[in-house]
């Protein structure tokens, strides 16, 4: 999907997903003119679309975005850390979860 991340959350999420899969350079654009040009280019070039699809399929094997188990494990760790901070009587704050 080609995306132009502006004020809409959906377009920013789409840009984030494209970048997470390694396709950001090809799929995230910075202007309406570039958006239209990229959409037409991909619409007319089946080989380029196929190459992008192949890269996306390959990314599914290694990209953390597609690692559901890891995502769930990390979310659980975040929630547990938030609970620990709460039970210590501390207010909201930033923290990192590392492997």
From TrEMBL:
> Entry's Pfam families?
Glyco_transf_41 (PF13844)
Q: Which InterPro entries match?
A: OGT, OGT/SEC/SPY_C
What's the superkingdom here? Eukaryota
Q: Which GO terms describe its molecular function?
A: protein O-acetylglucosaminyltransferase activity
Sorted alphabetically, the keyword list is: Repeat, TPR repeat, Transferase
Q: Which organism is it from?
A: Monoraphidium neglectum
Please identify the protein, giving its name as recorded: O-GlcNAc transferase C-terminal domain-containing protein
**Recorded metabolic or biological pathway in which this protein acts:** Protein modification; protein glycosylation
Its lineage reads: Eukaryota, Viridiplantae, Chlorophyta, core chlorophytes, Chlorophyceae
Q: What GO biological process, any one, is recorded here?
A: protein O-linked glycosylation
